Amino acid sequence: MQSQDVSPRHAAPSGGAGPVAVEQAEAALVEHYPRLVRLAYLVLPPGLGRGRRVLTAHALVQRALPRGRRRPSVIPAQTSGREVDPGYAYLRERVLRSALAAARPRGGLSRLVPVSPTLPRVWGLTLFPHSGGADELALDQRLSTLSGPARAAYVLRGLEKLADPDVCGLLASAGVADPGGALAAANRVPAHPGLLSSPEFDACSLQARPTDPVRRRRHTRAVLAAAAALTVGGALAVLPGRGWGPDGAAAPVYAQNPAAQAALDPGRLTRVSPAAWRTSARTDFSVWPARGPLTGDEALLRRALAVWARPGERVRVSATPGTQTGGPAGPPRLLYAGEVDTARVVMFYDGLRIVRYAEPADGTRGAVLDLARVDGAADAGAGALVLGRSDGNVRYLTAPWVTKAAQRDLTKPDAAAKPLALADGVTAPLAAPAARTGGCTSWTVLQLTDAAGTRLSTDLGELVPAHLTAGRPGAAGEASGARGLHTWAPFACSLAAERSAGVRSVNAWAYAEQPLPDGSGSGTWVCTRAETWRGDGTAALAQFGTPGGTAGAVVAKGTDVPACGPRDPQVLAGVLWKSAAGHWYLLAAGGEETASITASGGITASGPGPLLTAKARQGARADLTGTLADGRPISGLH
């Protein structure tokens, strides 16, 4: 089976080298400044720290302009890449050369380009890009293992859309001795071009945190007194029972008021009775009891609250789309505190967000803070939380009303679920599908049973697993039944497209069965729709499966559209398909309320009813329109 053909767009090659005035380079700098800063930020070594990389990236870009205004600068021959502005090509090479030189080893140490006081400096604040999701964090970690030239090769190909010969040529012109080796090393990191354009790597859209306002503007005597106090405090911090200090990896205090102090006092944390859920009319996170062996560790809880309120520069912060990252407005509910694999984990709930703090078991260096929206969560949406991931596995903390837990391979609907041990609500580890790379041959989901029935959830790389349902939008049921399992089986791997998008639930609806030409059996049309916690960002995928196929194919996608949802349970999609006899056909299908379908453009055909089959040629394209039984028009999902 072949999916609908989409021809890539290529920029036309431009002319050769030529002179350009300084004014032309300045115009290119103004127009493409954010892209150049992003390029420099990605190529600079991650070991600098996010704040230092931001300032250095801006400094390098601002230094890229040619000096002097009388003599024109020579622009290198342009590539067939995305940008065709000769001024941009010139600046890109200058920025790349400077970024590679900034961390080139010299005498066993990295040489850092000094930042002049006239170039970007921010006194009293540290600036860093907005945090992305799990995918962006994983990519940043993979890029940190590459050399500077390999990072540059990866970025030029993924962000700048340059072909491999152009990448090698640009690296060579920037002074890289072995461009081919750099490109080969970059090939070890999977291509994620969309992630390179995410806010995680945008060094022009920044967050600000104070450095140490208490220490600034002090007189010499006050500084000495503060240093003496700091020395005494440091001695106390290493005494037995004090751990790594009261705040651990948190940034310095910059707000002192009764409300903020109350929110950060571990003694004022809200703790729910273990039996509260049995008599409550609510089944959400507000009735979860505090569990875990470290719920009485005040030093750990204090560090977790302090990092939540003011994460330090070295704390990795991630948040699902649309989630605010500020500290608690008041004392939050404590859900869990304990050791998970090799980390100490604390989980809070403030009525709108789930917050997870984790630190290594042997210190606070490398602490992480994750936040996720859960407004309106109840029943299945409040059934489990991700405690931690390790070695490709995931552990969950389940709701107190969960009686049984199991794991199931969603691609094998007839296989039995495998029971998971539950200890104080914590599951044994199970495979995390969101961590898989390469070909998808299975998709492990979490199966939970309570008094209301059995439900399925899947890890999509976030704190809250997504609830899986099956059936017509507006009347969908649990995916744990036999019909739901068989609906999901060929399309389970398509869930990978919804990672790190703040997904609340995903529904699969088998909306049509279509007889295939040349006696090839029947094809299945399924629409999967992902709903998010924030409301927008919904995604609907039309997928097609053929008899005997182990996996379906995505043939159309719509974002922020009502199609295939409770508000408008209608969908229309088509695909080019090749039969076993070698003939090409256009297959199109709508819901049962579709009265007719028409194809135009590269293929002209029409017919009554919700199905359309027409002969086609390989590579043909068609626009689909339809009419519903009530006379309303409908267009193909896109």
Describe this structure in words.
By secondary structure, this protein is an alpha+beta fold. It has 13 helices and 33 strands. The strands form 9 sheets. Strands 14, 15, 19, 20, 21, 22, 23, 24, 25 and 26 form a 10-stranded mixed β-sheet that branches. A 5-stranded mixed β-sheet has the order 7-11-10-9-8, with helices on one face. Strands 30-29-32-33 form a 4-stranded antiparallel β-sheet, with no helix packed on it. A hairpin with a 6-residue loop joins β21 and β22. The longest helix has 22 residues, at 22-43. The radius of gyration is 28 Å and the shape is globular. The two termini are 20 Å apart. Mean pLDDT is 83; it is low at 1-19, 69-83, 106-119, 212-220 and 232-243.
